[in-house]
């Protein structure tokens, strides 16, 4: 092995320039071919895309040794890797990551209908050597990435509430990494869907918009719990808005609009989705995108993985702190609602809520809202606590990870966006108040 490492030549593995692989058949006949994708696995391994059962594939299965020639896209320096084939993976994080990247490469080269990943061939790198030549000077080292990570971490560390934390994360990405379009989605463990709780850089916030697990870049990153990065426009990972179809399946007679528009760019050219994890559990996805090609490198991916890790730990810590640090505050007199009654309809089939004719929310957040307004009408209550919601079996909160704070934040933001005469107001750690400006007429439907 030379003094160069795989990490130092990662720009060669971004798919900008095809590599050349040399193999030898069992009878000793050499074969040389181009290969579109060489994927960095770790400092001792790379993975090559298996798309066709061609001569190269046949040779590798009979003779596991190969030589790979890589070209640095900036310095034009060649590197040769001596490889030994180990195995082929057809599912899992590595396969899905390569599949997403290959889709971007195929789209950029006009081969979307030709490239299809059948497997990820994992190779051990037995030797790496720089080919003698006259390369161009190395580009200046991209500085500031570690500093950007530090500034992001410091900003997140100062947050004491979930809404503050989410806003700080998006602001930090913009201020320190120049990322203008981003969103954070949380996982609903019951429905196995991701819902948007915060976004920046879009015409509409899209708070409450949902994505199915495995759907698009975001859904694949969540399902496989691995970063997915695409550096070119691709049609293979356009987002679908599947909420309507599932709702219609549940309620064939329901003709009301419950689809919150997805806030993403209409023509993204670079996308990066990173799972937000904590103590081994998936909490959500941090997603960024750009209308320009080649905006997110492996360095951006590394930084976002670290930011997502910090975000996940902070969310987990805040959820625990809410229970431990709950403070009882004395109730305050509720204002007297005035004006014409406001109709609130609740559909029990999926806990969807409509205020007059306007769709507000559904799912667990809808069930929470229905409990609040029901207690208000029946008992005159306006003061509530997170603890009592967690203990209420009718809400359907999961036992382990309920994401209650995220659901309450989602509900609060949906009410604010609709300028509804019903709002929630935080009154302390783990406590909030229901503010009702008009009389309520509740309608509970099957």
From TrEMBL:
<protein>
    <recommendedName>
        <fullName>GAF domain-containing protein</fullName>
    </recommendedName>
</protein>
<dbReference type="Pfam" id="PF01243">
    <property type="entry name" value="PNPOx_N"/>
</dbReference>
<dbReference type="InterPro" id="IPR012349">
    <property type="entry name" value="Split_barrel_FMN-bd"/>
</dbReference>
<dbReference type="Pfam" id="PF13185">
    <property type="entry name" value="GAF_2"/>
</dbReference>
<feature type="domain" description="GAF">
    <location>
        <begin position="161"/>
        <end position="325"/>
    </location>
</feature>
<dbReference type="InterPro" id="IPR029016">
    <property type="entry name" value="GAF-like_dom_sf"/>
</dbReference>
<dbReference type="InterPro" id="IPR011576">
    <property type="entry name" value="Pyridox_Oxase_N"/>
</dbReference>
<dbReference type="InterPro" id="IPR003018">
    <property type="entry name" value="GAF"/>
</dbReference>
């Amino acid at each position: 092995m030379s003094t160069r490492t795989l990490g130092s030549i990662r720009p060669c593995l971004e798919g900008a320039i095809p590599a050349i692989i040399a193999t030898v058949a069992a009878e000793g006949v050499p074969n040389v071919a181009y290969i579109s994708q060489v994927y960095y696995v770790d400092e001792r391994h790379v993975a090559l895309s298996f798309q066709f059962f061609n001569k190269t594939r046949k040779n590798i299965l009979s003779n596991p040794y190969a030589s790979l020639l890589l070209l640095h896209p900036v310095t034009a320096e060649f590197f040769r890797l001596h490889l030994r084939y180990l195995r082929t993976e057809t599912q899992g994080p590595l396969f899905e990551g390569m599949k997403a990247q290959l889709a971007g490469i195929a789209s950029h080269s006009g081969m979307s209908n030709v490239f299809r990943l059948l497997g990820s061939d994992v190779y051990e790198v037995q030797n790496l050597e720089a080919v003698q030549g006259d390369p161009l000077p190395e580009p200046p080292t991209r500085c500031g990435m570690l500093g950007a990570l530090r500034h992001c971490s410091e900003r997140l560390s100062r947050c004491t509430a979930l809404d503050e934390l989410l806003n700080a994360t998006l602001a930090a990405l913009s201020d320190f990494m120049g990322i203008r379009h981003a969103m954070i989605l949380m996982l609903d463990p019951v429905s196995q869907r991701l819902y948007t709780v915060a976004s920046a850089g879009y015409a509409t916030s899209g708070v409450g918009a949902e994505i199915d697990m495995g759907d698009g870049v975001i859904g694949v990153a969540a399902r496989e719990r691995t970063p997915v990065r695409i550096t070119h426009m691709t049609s293979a990972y356009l987002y679908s808005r599947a909420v309507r179809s599932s709702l219609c399946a549940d309620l064939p007679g329901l003709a009301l609009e419950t689809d919150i528009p997805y806030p993403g760019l209409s023509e993204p050219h670079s996308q990066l989705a990173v799972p937000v994890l904590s103590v081994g559990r998936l909490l959500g996805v941090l997603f960024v995108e750009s209308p320009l090609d080649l905006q997110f490198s492996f360095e951006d991916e590394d930084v976002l993985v670290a930011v997502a890790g910090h975000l996940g730990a902070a969310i987990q810590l805040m959820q625990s702190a809410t229970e431990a640090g709950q403070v009882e505050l004395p109730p305050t007199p509720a204002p007297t609602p005035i004006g014409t009654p406001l109709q609130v309809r609740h559909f029990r089939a999926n806990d969807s809520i409509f205020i007059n004719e306007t769709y507000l929310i559904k799912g667990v957040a809808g069930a929470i809202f229905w409990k609040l307004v029901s207690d208000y009408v029946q008992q005159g209550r306006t003061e509530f606590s997170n603890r009592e919601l967690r203990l209420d079996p009718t809400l359907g909160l999961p036992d382990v990870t309920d994401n209650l704070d995220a659901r309450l934040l989602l509900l609060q933001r949906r009410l604010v966006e609709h300028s509804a005469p019903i709002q929630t107001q935080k009154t302390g750690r783990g406590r909030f108040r229901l503010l009702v400006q008009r009389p309520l007429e509740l309608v509970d439907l099957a």
